[in-house]
Amino acid sequence: GSNACDWKASEQSCQQFLQAFQQEKSGSISQRIEQAILTTNKNMLLTTGTCAGMKATFCVVVWDMTNAFLYFTNIGDSRIYTIQNQQAHQISTDEVQSVIMRKKDGKPIIISGIAVVAEGITNAMGSDDLTFKVLQQSSEGVEGLVLSSDGFHGLSPNSDQDVLQAFGVLNLDKGFDQLY
Predict the structure, then answer these.
(1) How far apart, in Å, are the Cα atoms of 98 and each of 46, 118, 125, 140, 151?
(2) Above pLDDT 70, what percent of the chain?
(3) How many CA atoms lie within 13 A of 42 on its CB side?
(4) Where are the beta strands (DSSP E) in 4-148?
(5) Which of 12, 58, 77, 176 could cross-link 94 (Cys pair, CB 3.0–4.6 Å)?
(6) Could you give the strand order of the β-sheet that contains 87-90, starting from the edge strand earlier in sequence?
(7) 67: helix, coil or strand?
């Protein structure tokens, strides 16, 4: 991000979302996710001082195993993948837009006759105009989930394969043993 505290925005988004989601006991899972995101975003907007204006991408999935449904949303370009049949499937949508880079005088930056283009996110936690929609889909056949930031999926043109490879090297049984 462009703010020195954007790392803190990511941390705060996760912590405050979990707290708000766990505290909200009424309503459907979708409504609880929505309310928790709105509460978290409101708190981020109230931040003052050095970290005022901090922003973060965000994604969340609630896996309702009893009813075999995934409830999810993403904000910005963080991604959500399902792992099914040894394949990674991106279920979120990147909220990005390509823009022509401009000089201070407003003219496009041209290198070797080609306009310089950059990609930027169009939605973020910490925005006054935050938009999102909680989606749901069946979790039938889903073996796992991967939440990925652009620091991971932007490293290679083979993001889906990279996600699958990373998922494949994880020893989930050992991880669960450490939790319980």
Answers:
(1) 30, 6, 20, 35, 18
(2) 81
(3) 7
(4) 58-64, 69-75, 79-84, 87-90, 96-100, 110-111, 114-115, 117-121, 135-138, 144-148
(5) 77
(6) 87-90, 79-84, 144-148
(7) coil
Report phi then psi at 58, rounded to 5: -160, 140
pLDDT digits 0-9 by tens, 142-161: 988 888 876 665 556 666 66
Residue 71's beta-bridge partner residues?
62, 136
Residue that the structure tokens 């909680």 belong to: 134
- Radius of gyration of the chain, Cα coordinates, nearest whole angstrom: 19
Strand partners, 98: 119
Q: What is the pLDDT of residue 162?
A: 67
